[in-house]
Design goal:
alpha/beta, 5 helices, about 40% helix, globular
Length: about 140
């Protein structure tokens, strides 16, 4: 089974940077992009335009931004952890937020990791490579 990455990112520049960093670092996994929290939840729970999608095919990792329109990242995380189908899916918060409360809330709601996006592309690329290596190659997923 191939490992899918779900990238939940509303900023087009950050989306392009993340996809470029994944490709540059040889991470060829399929990436599904959701541009807001509502779209991410529709994808994960096979609703709306994603109705009919196999909900048993959960992402290997979700890269989740916090500050998004419609449904924010913390609410997405809250709903993920409340549902048995997605409760154990690894979630990495990938954000520019410097707010300590966002960090605290993310972990309290069950985030597996919290990464602040570096401003410099080289640092960002290194961070994405490390995330990919760990979550896609080293980490063992819990069975469904």
């Amino acid at each position: 089974m191939h490992k899918i990455i779900l990238l939940v990112e509303d900023n087009p520049d950050d989306e392009v940077l993340t996809l470029h960093a994944l490709k540059t670092n040889g991470i060829g996994n399929a990436v599904v992009v959701a541009r807001d929290g509502a779209e991410a939840l529709d994808y994960l729970f096979a609703r709306g335009e994603h109705a009919g999608r196999d909900v048993n095919e959960t992402p290997a990792v979700i890269l989740l931004d916090l500050n998004m329109p419609k449904v924010g990242g913390l609410e997405v995380l809250r709903q993920l952890r409340a549902d048995p189908r997605t409760r154990r899916t690894p979630v990495v918060i990938l954000t520019t937020s410097r707010e300590e409360q966002d960090l605290v809330n993310s972990y309290e709601l069950g985030a597996n990791s919290y990464v602040r996006k570096p401003v410099d592309f080289e640092q960002f690329s290194d961070a994405v490579r490390s995330l990919g290596m760990y979550w896609l190659l080293l980490n063992e997923l819990a069975p469904h």
